[in-house]
């Protein structure tokens, strides 16, 4: 094999990770979410998938659009897809070259699998000492019993996330999204960035371990600290807050709103808007600890007042007074409302099968975006859309790629006209 071509010089206005190569051996949510964030910042992310089925989430539908699962579309923009069967020795050798030539490798195989494939940290770092290698698992390398599989639902249960979620007196409830996967993806991306900084300074990479269980426990933040301080299990608070009053959802004349009067000054402003100066003067409610102690009485008074007017009226009045308030929205309503408010939450990409796509931006914005410096994203890839191009970059010739495609150990996506989506270089 010829060595991979050097990374191109970053274009003007390119993202901060332009020129960084990422070999993404992960699947489902945590790993793909992390690598999508790296792609958003300009990294060249090569997603390595099974040639027959691809990432598990390609089959996680409905809903579908153009035959593509919305779940897969949500976390795979900006990547290139290499569909390769790692059980084939020739293909495995090619993928080993891709990983050795990468600045970052991310994988979430079961413990021991990467090593058997010659894709473990030791294998990669022996050839590329500066490589940053990130292993993602459910329960971490030291957890007992060893090799325990972990999905978000299991980890939400095991971490206390479910116990902390739900209505008081009701059953434990999972969050409405795979929150431990998302937290793990964020932790993986942050740790990779830190390791990249050091690798650039010292020439030495690092093996990072990120687990769903540790991400969940740390993500519970004040709830875990409360448990440690009190020695007791925190009670579920539903849409209220165990330590702040009023900080919860309230009904109005037509729909629910949330009010977050997180300090004494905000509480007094709320009372002014409600026309209830007596509540501000009442010693039972003078400070936040007082209000927590007399929660039921105060919530009943506030609820009675808020029921008198529609949500839009209260939103206008409370926002004008500087009291944090929001409408309880559905997801689609929230997206459209944020976009209309100028939050610029949506990206647009043209998908070869699904057509024009709306995608949700990452939660951060970089200063370069304000001057048009943010790079345009590409749509989530078809399975094997870039197989020939990626293998060609690592010295595999056109005839050899054709043989691998013919025997089914590499898959190359076809355009609607029947041609390969990307042609490899000639031998």
Question: What would you note in describing this structure?
Answer:
- This protein is α/β, with parallel strands linked by helices and 427 residues long.
- The protein folds into 2 domains: 21-221 and 367-411, 3-Layer(aba) Sandwich (Rossmann fold); 256-327, formyl-coa transferase, domain 3 (2-Layer Sandwich).
- It contains 18 helices and 14 strands.
- The protein is elongated.
What brief labels describe this structure?
alpha/beta, succinyl-CoA:(R)-benzylsuccinate CoA-transferase activity, three-stranded antiparallel sheet, EC 2.8.3.15, 15% strand, 427 residues, single chain, 38% helix, 18 helices, Rossmann fold
Largest β-sheet summary: 7 strands, mixed
Radius of gyration: 26 Å
CATH class of the largest domain equals Alpha Beta
Q: Helical proportion?
A: 25-40%
**Structural class based on helices, strands and sheet pairing:** alpha/beta
How does CATH name the architecture of the largest domain?
Answer: 3-Layer(aba) Sandwich
Unreliable runs: 1-8, 370-374, 416-427
Compute the separation of the termini in Å: 11 Å
Count of domains:
2
Q: Which percent band covers the strand fraction?
A: 5-15%
So what's the overall shape?
elongated
Question: What's the total number of strands?
Answer: 14
Q: In which order are the strands of the major sheet placed?
A: 8-7-6-1-2-5-14
CATH topology of the largest domain: Rossmann fold
CATH superfamily of the largest domain: Crotonobetainyl-coa:carnitine coa-transferase, domain 1
GO molecular function, one term: succinyl-CoA:(R)-benzylsuccinate CoA-transferase activity
Enzyme class: transferase
Keywords: Transferase
Protein name: Succinyl-CoA:(R)-benzylsuccinate CoA-transferase subunit BbsF
């Amino acid at each position: 094999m010829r060595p991979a071509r050097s990374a191109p010089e970053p274009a003007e206005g390119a993202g901060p990770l332009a020129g960084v190569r990422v070999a993404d051996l992960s699947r489902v949510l945590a790993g793909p979410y992390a690598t999508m964030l790296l792609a958003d910042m300009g990294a060249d992310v090569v997603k390595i998938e099974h040639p027959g089925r691809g990432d598990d989430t390609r089959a996680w539908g409905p809903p579908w659009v153009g035959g593509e699962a919305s779940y897969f579309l949500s976390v795979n923009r900006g990547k290139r897809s290499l569909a390769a069967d790692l059980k084939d020795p020739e293909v495995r050798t090619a993928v080993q070259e891709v990983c050795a030539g990468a600045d970052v490798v991310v994988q979430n195989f079961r413990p021991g699998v990467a090593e058997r494939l010659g894709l473990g940290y030791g294998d990669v770092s022996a050839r590329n000492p500066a490589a940053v290698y990130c292993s993602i698992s459910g329960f971490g390398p030291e957890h007992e019993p060893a090799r325990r599989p972990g999905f978000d639902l299991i980890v939400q249960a095991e971490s206390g996330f479910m116990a902390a979620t739900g209505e008081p007196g009701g059953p434990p409830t999972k969050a409405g999204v795979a929150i431990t996967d998302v937290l793990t993806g964020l932790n993986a991306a942050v740790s990779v960035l830190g390791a990249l900084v050091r690798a650039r300074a010292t020439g030495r990479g690092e093996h990072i371990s990120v687990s769903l269980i540790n991400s969940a426990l740390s993500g519970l933040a004040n709830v875990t600290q409360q448990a440690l301080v009190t020695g007791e299990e925190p009670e579920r608070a539903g849409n209220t807050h165990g330590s702040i009053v009023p900080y919860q959802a309230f009904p109005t004349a037509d729909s629910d709103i949330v009010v977050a009067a997180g300090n004494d000054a905000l509480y007094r402003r709320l009372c002014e808007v409600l026309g209830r100066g007596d509540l501000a003067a009442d010693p039972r409610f003078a400070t936040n600890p007082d209000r927590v102690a007399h929660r039921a009485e105060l919530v009943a008074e506030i609820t009675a007042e808020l029921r008198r007017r529609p949500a839009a009226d209260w939103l206008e009045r409370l926002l004008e007074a500087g009291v944090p308030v929001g409408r309880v929205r559905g997801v689609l309503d929230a997206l459209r409302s944020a976009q209309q408010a100028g939050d610029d939450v949506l990206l647009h990409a043209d998908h070869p099968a699904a057509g024009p796509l709306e995608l949700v931006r990452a939660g951060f914005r970089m200063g370069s975006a304000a001057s048009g410096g943010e790079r345009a994203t590409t749509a989530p890839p078809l399975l094997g859309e870039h197989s020939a191009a990626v293998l060609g970059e690592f010295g595999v010739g056109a005839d050899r790629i054709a043989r691998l495609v013919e025997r089914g150990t590499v898959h190359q996506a076809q355009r609607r006209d029947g041609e390969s989506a990307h042609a490899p270089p000639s031998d």
